[in-house]
Amino acid sequence: MLSLLSRTRRHMLAAPLALSIGLSAAGAFAAAPASPSALRIGFQKSASLLTLQKAQGTLEKRLQPLGVAVQWVEFPAGPQLLEGLNVGAIDVGFVGEAPPIFAQAAGANFVYIGNDPAAPEAEALVVQKDSPIKSVAELKGKKVALNKGSNVHYLLVKALEKAGLKYTDIQPVFLPPADARAAFERGAVDAWVIWDPFLAAVEKQSNARILADGKGLVSDYNFYLAERGYAQKYPKVIAALFEDTQAQGRWLKTHLDEAALLIAPLQGLDVEVVKLSLHRYQFNVQPVTPAIAAEQQLIADSFYNLKLIPKPIRIVDALPGAASATRVATER
Question: CATH classification of 4-117+221-331 is 3.40.50.2300, yes or no?
Answer without folding.
Answer: no
